[in-house]
Write a sequence for this structure.
């Protein structure tokens, strides 16, 4: 093991949930839906997964519970914005407030317990001992599945008819509607997928990384995932790159603390947020470029009844 | 099958009716929630929202919580009118508290009667400074104000933690994360003997008409409203977008910073790591529920304060977690957004749905 392996390993651990949440949001945004409720959906998913394992259900059931909880939260958002034409920004904020509140309210009894079942690392024999890339081969199931989801999402968006339809809806819902695509239905599907993926991210925090429940467990990572989508210019593989960068910053802070460097853990803890701001500024500085990458109808409601 | 049909013009009745329907809907949902948890719903609602207000002290506590909410929401409403989403008021409030506390703990024994006015100015400056970062990055580098203001809220919370666990910790506090208590000259004085409500309420009361004048009568207020309602017209008229962003963020940041001072120099009396129940976030709901109108905001602030107090009495009377108030807040905002559909659409009865699938 090289001396930097712990740094890489903790960076990867921090990156994986971001990959899930950002991929889900990316698909929703590609369909033109800006859901700022990622943090709320993640918390609901995290609590559902923890409650499942705490209740004696197995890990597959915990994963399923988090997917269902995240998707259910996204469904509330979808009804508000896609059916009832509410502002996406306001509804997303509402979802985060409600998700934070509901998870804190229902999760009260779980505070202080350790998860009885957890996703543990599954090292690939031979490969996990390699220098530098070794940690990449000693992930847990959710970690390996994240890589598969990256590939699947990229393939779906850019190499299937359904993916093309989804992107068309996000670029120009009016044209897509005229072509006979069911804009609202496609947007519903994309939004629910985003919620399900945020739920998985929550599951990862509760049952794989922290292995416990705590109010506000996700500590703003839902918002970082939103920033990642912008940073990645709405491209799946770039979210992985971005997530690794953010994970690396988080891991760097933890690594410094572990090596005993005398620096306030609170100030080190602010590094990921500052890095997010820096990354946003870096990619936003040219508005023309940003506008070219962003789905043209992002955040704009489309009413099929007119 | 019910379907939506767009109204030719927004309904004025629904514009103000929607918040009322939403509040009613929230209480129905809340009652259902209590029933599901095995609490008799009506007596639970009574215990939460009526009995805390039965004495002067209860009313004082209500106004004490409504005041910062109202102050922050008035500032935010200016921005929401012009479609600039500062959702980091919570962090701007932290920085207001930090700046004011910095002055108080270093100079309160020396500055006498000048202490509190200086703290107020410092607090406003703290909120302004934190919001100015957002404004600069949004206006000149086009970074999303939503994400930047929120990230800075997490940073501000960590700065507070760093200070109260580190350099500003009261050495006599047995390692508790808090600063020394403020002296009387660094505190707003109570309005009456025996209650916590203090003179900072007067600042909020003065801000309500001030906000109305700014938005309705000033030319800047007019420009901001145009920027929100018709961005293309605003550009055509030559209104500077960057200037609007700066004004909006400075106004809302300053108001949030001021609210931070009224808290630490009011009921809290020091700076610690858990002094706010999330006023900065709740104020977003207050602004929306109050229809971005100063009077509506004042009423909405009272309602949200009642939810906070209800949450606290739920802990004592019903052994429910305090988070019950954020559940109600979230439900209320959701219900409001759902009811808002009636402003722009009317419900229409359509006998059967036409299949849009080509045969």
């Amino acid at each position: 093991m090289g001396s930097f392996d712990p740094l890489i390993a903790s960076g990867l651990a921090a990156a994986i949930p971001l990959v899930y949440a950002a991929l889900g949001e990316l698909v929703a945004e590609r369909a033109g839906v800006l859901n700022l409720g990622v943090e709320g959906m993640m918390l609901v998913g995290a609590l559902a997964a923890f409650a499942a394992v705490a209740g004696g259900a197995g890990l597959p059931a915990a994963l399923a519970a988090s997917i269902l909880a995240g998707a259910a939260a996204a469904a509330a958002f979808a009804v508000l914005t896609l059916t009832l034409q509410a502002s996406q920004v306001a509804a997303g904020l509402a979802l985060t407030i409600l998700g934070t509140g509901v998870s804190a309210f229902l999760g009260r009894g779980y505070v202080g317990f350790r998860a009885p079942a957890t996703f543990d690392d599954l090292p690939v024999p031979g490969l996990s001992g390699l220098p530098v890339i070794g940690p990449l081969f000693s992930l847990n199931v959710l970690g390996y599945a994240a890589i598969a989801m990256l590939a699947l999402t990229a393939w779906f968006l850019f190499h299937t008819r359904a993916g093309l339809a989804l992107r068309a809806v996000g670029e120009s819902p009016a044209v897509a509607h005229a072509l006979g695509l069911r804009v609202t239905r496609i947007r519903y599907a994309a939004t629910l997928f985003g919620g399900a993926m945020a739920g998985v991210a929550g599951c990862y925090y509760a049952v794989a990384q922290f292995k416990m429940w705590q109010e506000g467990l996700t500590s703003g990572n839902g918002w970082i995932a939103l920033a990642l989508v912008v940073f990645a210019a709405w491209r799946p593989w770039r979210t992985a790159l971005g997530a690794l960068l953010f994970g690396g910053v988080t891991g760097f802070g933890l690594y410094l603390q572990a090596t005993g460097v005398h620096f306030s853990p609170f100030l080190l803890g602010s590094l990921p947020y500052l890095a997010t701001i820096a990354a946003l500024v870096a990619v936003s500085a040219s508005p023309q470029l940003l506008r070219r990458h962003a789905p043209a109808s992002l955040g704009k409601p489309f009413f099929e009844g007119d | 099958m019910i379907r939506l049909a767009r109204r030719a013009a927004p309904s004025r009745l629904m514009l103000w009716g929607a918040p009322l329907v939403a509040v009613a809907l929230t209480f129905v949902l809340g009652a259902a929630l209590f029933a599901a948890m095995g609490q008799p719903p009506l007596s639970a609602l009574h215990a939460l929202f009526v009995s805390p207000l039965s004495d002067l002290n209860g009313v004082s506590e209500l106004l004490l919580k409504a005041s910062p909410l109202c102050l922050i929401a008035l500032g935010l409403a200016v921005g929401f009118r012009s479609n600039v989403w500062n959702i980091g008021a919570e962090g701007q409030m932290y920085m207001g508290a930090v700046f004011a506390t910095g002055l108080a703990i270093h100079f309160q024994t020396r500055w006498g009667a000048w202490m509190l006015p200086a703290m107020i100015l410092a607090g406003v400056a703290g909120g302004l400074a934190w919001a100015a970062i957002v404004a600069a990055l949004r206006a000149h580098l086009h970074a999303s104000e939503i994400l930047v203001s929120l990230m800075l809220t997490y940073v501000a919370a960590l700065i507070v933690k760093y200070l109260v666990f580190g350099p500003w910790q009261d050495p006599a506090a047995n390692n508790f994360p808090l600063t020394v208590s403020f002296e009387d000259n660094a505190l707003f004085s109570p309005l009456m003997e025996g209650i916590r409500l203090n003179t900072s309420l007067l600042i909020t009361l003065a801000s309500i008409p001030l906000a109305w004048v700014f938005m309705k009568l000033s030319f800047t207020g007019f420009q901001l409203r145009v920027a929100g309602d018709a961005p293309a017209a605003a550009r055509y008229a030559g209104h500077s977008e960057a200037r609007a962003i700066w004004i909006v963020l400075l106004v809302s940041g300053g108001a949030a910073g001021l609210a931070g001072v009224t808290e630490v120099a009011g009921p809290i009396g020091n700076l610690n790591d858990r002094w706010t129940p999330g006023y900065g976030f709740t104020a977003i709901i207050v602004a929306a529920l109050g229809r971005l109108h100063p009077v509506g905001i004042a009423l909405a602030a009272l309602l949200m304060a009642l939810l906070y107090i209800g949450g606290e009495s739920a802990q004592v009377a019903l052994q429910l977690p305090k988070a019950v108030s954020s559940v109600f807040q979230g439900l209320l905002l959701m219900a409001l957004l759902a009811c808002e559909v009636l402003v722009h659409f009317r419900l229409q009865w359509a006998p059967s749905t036409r299949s849009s699938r080509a045969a």
Chain B has two domains: 1-39+320-359, 52-304. The radius of gyration of chain B is 22 Å. Residues 241-268 of chain B form the longest helix (28 residues). The mean pLDDT of chain B is 89.
